[in-house]
Design brief:
The protein is of the alpha+beta class. It is built from 8 helices and 16 strands. The protein is flat and about 75 Å long. It folds into 3 domains: 123 residues, 3-Layer(aba) Sandwich (D-Maltodextrin-Binding Protein, domain 2); 87 residues, D-Maltodextrin-Binding Protein, domain 2, CATH 3.40.190; 68 residues, Alpha-Beta Plaits (2-Layer Sandwich), CATH 3.30.70. The strands form 3 sheets. It has a 7-stranded mixed β-sheet with strand order 2-3-4-1-5-12-6. Strands 9-8-10-7-11 form a 5-stranded mixed β-sheet. The protein has a 4-stranded antiparallel β-sheet with strand order 14-15-13-16, covered by helices on one side. The structure holds adenosine-5'-triphosphate and zinc ion. The site of adenosine-5'-triphosphate has 15 residues, from helix 3.
Length: 295
């Protein structure tokens, strides 16, 4: 029997590509691409990579053409709302990259005061399923106009009164005289799998891959944080740090009132986190990356 290989679908080129390839790389996997650039082979594990348009990924995964895939939650949810399949793809886990928001945006001169303002209006979007679901949950009835692209020009062309579109910085909206008024859906990259179940051989490859992916994602945002602080501030500091585990407390030679605190934080540590730590009495704060971590 031919060797069983797990097939993963990722975006060929676009905002999900780099993060997807980077994730596989962090798992110790290198992809050698074929001549046609649509197909790649992983050297280190029995895994094949298919490079597709992101919109095709949910369908490929539900139709058995691929075993697993990486898509935006926005695309996956939209597909789920639009089609009812016998064997749809299933979510495995979010992956923490390609974050963006699906937002309702209206002309800048609207003084927007709530979802009710959209009643009876025309809203242009490439995400009719998600947009309708949001309107419904807010008890608003509006006319949703589906467009494949260039949604942001619809109000200027008088095709629609407002839009519902993917936003990351808002610059495109601004350039088209629009302002974001409500968040309809928050999205990030998502790992999905075929819902029918794998053969024992494929399941074993999948399990091995998931162990690596979970390990990479746990350590990705984790930081090792060290600082000096007054003994009296230990409780406040431990409580404040995001996702901190039990700290290691060390005595400082010659200073009975101060200690060194060392801990692993599982969420991002930002500059304002450091400012807050200083306010709580910490000094000489060091934040170090963690390369690998295993529970
Ligand atoms: P394809 O050619 O594969 O169909 P595309 O043009 O539809 O590509 P991209 O613009 O590359 O898609 O976006 C892919 C996904 O990346 C989106 O569905 C979304 O989940 C995510 N994304 C992250 N940031 C943004 C952003 N600023 N604008 C649009 N999508 C974003
Ligand atoms: Zn697409």
């Amino acid at each position: 029997m031919a060797e069983q290989r797990l097939r993963i679908a990722i975006q060929k080129s676009g905002r999900l590509s780099e993060g997807s390839i980077e994730l596989l790389k962090s798992c110790g996997l290198t992809i050698s691409r074929g001549k046609d650039k649509l197909y790649g082979r992983v050297q280190e594990m029995p895994i094949d990579v298919l490079l597709l348009r992101d919109d095709d990924i949910p369908e490929f995964v539900s139709d058995d053409a691929c075993d697993i895939g990486i898509v935006g939650q926005n695309v996956f949810e939209e597909e789920r709302l639009a089609v009812t399949r016998e064997a749809p793809a299933r979510e495995v886990r979010t992956l923490g990259f390609a974050r963006c928001k699906l937002m309702l945006a209206a002309p800048k001169d609207w003084s927007f005061d709530g979802a009710g303002m959209l009643a009876g209006k025309r809203i242009a979007t490439s995400y009719p399923g998600l947009t309708k679901a949001w309107l419904e949950s807010h008890g608003v009835s509006a006319c949703v106009v589906t467009m494949k692209g260039s949604v942001e020009v619809a109000p200027r062309l008088k095709i629609a009164d407002a839009v519902c579109d993917i936003v990351s910085t808002g610059a495109t909206l601004d350039a088209n005289g629009l302002k974001p008024v409500a968040t309809v859906f928050e999205s990030q990259a998502l790992l999905i799998r075929n819902a029918k179940g794998f053969s024992a051989a494929k399941q074993a490859i999948f399990d091995a891959l998931m162990k690596r992916i979970n390990g990479v994602l746990t350590s990705r945002d984790a930081k090792y944080v060290m600082m000096n602080a007054p003994r009296s501030a230990i409780a406040a500091i431990t409580e404040f740090l995001p996702g901190a585990e039990a700290p290691t407390i060390l005595d400082l030679a010659g200073n009975p009132d101060k200690v060194a605190i060392h801990m692993v934080c599982r969420e991002s540590v930002f500059w304002d986190t450091l400012e807050e730590l200083k306010k709580l009495g910490a000094s000489a704060i060091l934040v170090l990356p963690i390369e690998k971590m295993m529970a």
